[in-house]
Amino acid sequence: MSELMMIVAFTLLAGMAMPLGALIACVERIHPAWLENEFRHSVIAFGGGALLSAVALVLVPDGIGSLDPVMAALCFCGGGLAFMTLDIVLFKLRTPASQLSAMLSDFIPESLALGAAFAMGASGSGVLLAVLMALQNLPEGFNAFRELNASSGYSRFKIIALFALMALCGPAAGLSGYLWLAESPSLVAGIMLFASGGILYSVFQDIAPQAVLDRHWAPPMGAVLGFILGMVGHMVTLT
Question: Residue 132 in contact with residue 53, Cβ under 8 Å?
């Protein structure tokens, strides 16, 4: 399989985790009620763990190698500020699609970075990033579906179809990174760190607070499991 086909396949599979998460969220009830709450919060925490592993094991380590400390810090901080600004704008507009916007805002730069990683010969990092993208898109699709289903007039079918269309952004961004960013390692590094700052902001602004459930202790283990999967994947790619 050519590298172009691999990029399309990996980014598309990672993107299709979004509608898959929405399909899982279609399950109305898990009985008893406490188990449904525990499961939902565990899914949220799992997504947070996967996002943190992407930042800690792929995006930041690969990003800081091509930039000086000042520029790296500026790119990272810029990502956090950009996501914060998006959060403020969505709040003021009172849009029901905050989770949807957050899902796309990290999926696209990560897909760009994946394509560039393949172009620069770091296919191991690219494959690991694709796995982590899928792991984070699954719970993000789950949460975004529940948010849209509860606060918008869209039918379940329309929401899932929308998520499936959004998955096509992955191959488009991945191919763009492969074809146009390979000769600009500093730009790719900046994109990785920008995405990292935004992801870290999202984890502590949106995901971690939602994962907390009074008098229940299983949800935080979801974050641990999400990070473990990223860690194991990182170790496998190094061997």
Answer: yes
Phi and psi of 67, rounded to 5°? -130, 155
Tokens of 79: 């990502």
Q: Tokens 């229940």 — which residue?
A: 216
* Percent of the chain clearing pLDDT 90 (strictly above): 7
Contacts of 143 (CB under 8 A, 6+ apart): 21, 25, 43, 44, 47, 99, 210
Phi (first) and psi of residue 31, to 5 degrees: -105, 145
The average pLDDT across 20-35 equals 67
User: String of b and e for 89-124 (b: at least 16 CB within 10 Å)?
Assistant: ebeeeeebbbbbebbbbbbbbbbbbbbbbbbbebbb
Name the H helices within the chain. 3-25, 33-54, 60-63, 69-93, 98-119, 123-151, 156-167, 169-180, 185-202, 208-211, 219-238
Assess whether pLDDT exceeds 70 at residue 36: no
CA distance 67 to 133: 24
pLDDT at 19 over 70: yes
pLDDT of residue 16 exceeding 90? yes
Q: 88 exposed, middle or buried (CB, 10 Å; 0-12, 13-18, 19+)?
A: exposed
